[in-house]
Amino acid sequence: MSDIYSEILLDHYRLPRNKGKLFQETISVEGKNPLCGDEIVLHLKLDGERVSEVAFEGSGCAISMASASMLTEDLKGRTLSEVESRIDQFRHFIREGAEPEGESLNDMISLSGVAKLPVRVKCATLAWTTMEEALRQVAKK
Ligand code: ZN
Fold this sequence. Notes:
This protein is of the alpha+beta class. Helix 1 crosses helix 2 and helix 3 runs antiparallel to helix 4. The chain starts with a helix and ends with a helix. The mean pLDDT is 94. The structure holds zinc ion.
């Protein structure tokens, strides 16, 4: 990975955004990546069809924690259908390693090297898969 990308990634790892619990959350969902030992709990607060707040707790490798931190920054304020398409876009990006057409990936671009490290793909996508599970559970409510 290039230096600038590792700087962005390590910044999110050392100073995670939106880490902690939420007051009066709508739902919280747990995700695990046993391959690496990454664990995460995603807290979500909805205002109708919109994500008004999102936070996470957990522990794991730098890639998994940085990716969770980036997720919270990226998804806050989005509608549920925007969140769904953002998850698809992110997953595609992690597999291909190239920034897809459309909206910028912002800090998430720093994870582009993961495509060349297949064992780390699950680390990078853990928070996003957990978010997907949260959406499924919300839909059932
Ligand atoms: Zn990991």
